[in-house]
Amino acid sequence: MLKVYLSGEIHTDWREQIIAGAEGLDVMFASPVTDHAASDDCGVAILGAEADKYWHDHKGAMVNAIRTRKGITEADVVVVRFGEKYKQWNAAFDAGYAAALGKSLIILQQPEHDHALKEVDAAALAVAREPAQVVAILRYVLAGSLPG
């Protein structure tokens, strides 16, 4: 079974597209919590309220990092999606962490981000533009078959 961690932006359905496209393949997917409010508030919900927004966010980031590190460490392949609307600094961090661990890294981004992400892309084994291309890579890795 191929373990794939889906990291990055949470505002579009790219994860669902990959999961649906990979149906029938021997793949297990993991990802961060994609409920934005739950992700932001997990630290204070579990560890207690913070009056200062910085510490509120800091607690959430630390709790989320436990899940993220586990997912990336256990993955065979890490897919990191950089969205169009927001700067995903956490996605860049996840890509760097995966690269440092020697994980097979696929970046999913639009061409307008090519220059800004050139160092991230250089660490990846593939840079895809569409979720279907990620599915085609997974299919090729598992079955050796090309799209068509």
Count of discrete alpha- or pi-helical segments spanning 4 or more residues: 6
User: How would you classify the helix and strand content by structural class?
Assistant: alpha/beta
Tell me the strand order in the biggest sheet: 2-1-3-4-5
* Fold-level CATH name of the domain at 2-32 and 75-143: Rossmann fold
What overall form do the CA principal axes indicate? globular
Termini Cα gap: 24 Å
Description:
With 148 residues, this protein is of the alpha/beta class. The chain has a domain at 2-32 and 75-143: Rossmann fold. It is 49% helix and 16% strand. It has six helices and five strands, in the order βαβααβαβαβα. It has helices at 14-21, 36-47, 53-74, 89-100, 118-123, 131-143, and strands at residues 2-8, 27-30, 77-81, 104-108, 126-128. The protein has a five-stranded parallel β-sheet with strand order 2-1-3-4-5, sandwiched between helices. β1, α1 and β2 form a beta-alpha-beta unit. The mean pLDDT is 96.
